[in-house]
């Protein structure tokens, strides 16, 4: 059964927007770990919970399938899909290549106004990741900082590919922030990237960005592996 909070926090308003609203609600629930990999997503239960017909539910699930968050199983319907270690590593390596390119181009094309936005995004991340829900907020704040640099690249198709990878990876790569002291290290890494932008050093910014992404991915994979081992030990499966 799906969590009641999924439906209680979502209001369907306006004709033609139901599928988008349902898609957003399900995506948020998946990325915030409210719905776990392997969880079935019965269309009838979703339609009843959201108070809509099957059609917008099916459209929302198809969109999430394209994002790599949902899969359709023969004779079983839709379910939340997860990643294994190899998936996380491969996607992270691709992401590092694309973001390295976006960081370099962003610095080369950055105006004073652009840099002011990067500074604001940096401060927002430093101050915003606190409290019990800080790890959940960290994904959006982290992306806002990096995207503020990439936006200066003026390359929308490159940014679309990066965003697609972010949606697929976010719930896994946040794992490194649960480690004691890791937030402080991330702040320092972001500060070094910010300084490279300030100094107009495109090559250094690209190098730091790539290293930052791959290090966070490696640590997150370790966290993922530890949690999987703990779950196996607890369940015996």
Word description of this protein:
With 237 residues, the protein is mainly α. The chain is built from ten helices and two strands; from the N terminus they run H-H-H-H-E-E-H-H-H-H-H-H. A two-stranded antiparallel sheet has the order 1-2. Helix 2 crosses helix 4, helix 6 (112-128) packs antiparallel against helix 7 (134-150) and helix 7 (134-150) packs antiparallel against helix 8 (156-173).
* Structural class computed from helices and strand pairing: mainly alpha
Q: Give the % helix.
A: over 70%
Strand numbers in spatial order across the main sheet: 1-2
**Uncertain ranges:** none
> Which oligomeric form is depicted?
single chain
Number of helices: 10
Summarize the structure.
The chain is mainly alpha-helical. It has helices spanning 4-8, 18-31, 43-50, 54-66, 85-108, 112-128, 134-150, 156-173, 182-198, 202-235; strands spanning 70-73, 77-80. A hairpin with a 3-residue loop joins strand 1 (70-73) and strand 2 (77-80).
Write the layout of secondary structure elements.
Blueprint: H1 4-8, H2 18-31, H3 43-50, H4 54-66, E1 70-73, E2 77-80, H5 85-108, H6 112-128, H7 134-150, H8 156-173, H9 182-198, H10 202-235
Antiparallel strand pairs: 1-2
Helix pairs in contact: 2-4, 3-4, 5-8, 5-10, 6-7, 6-9, 7-8, 9-10
Any descriptors?
mainly alpha; two-stranded antiparallel ribbon; 10 helices; 2 strands; 3% strand; globular
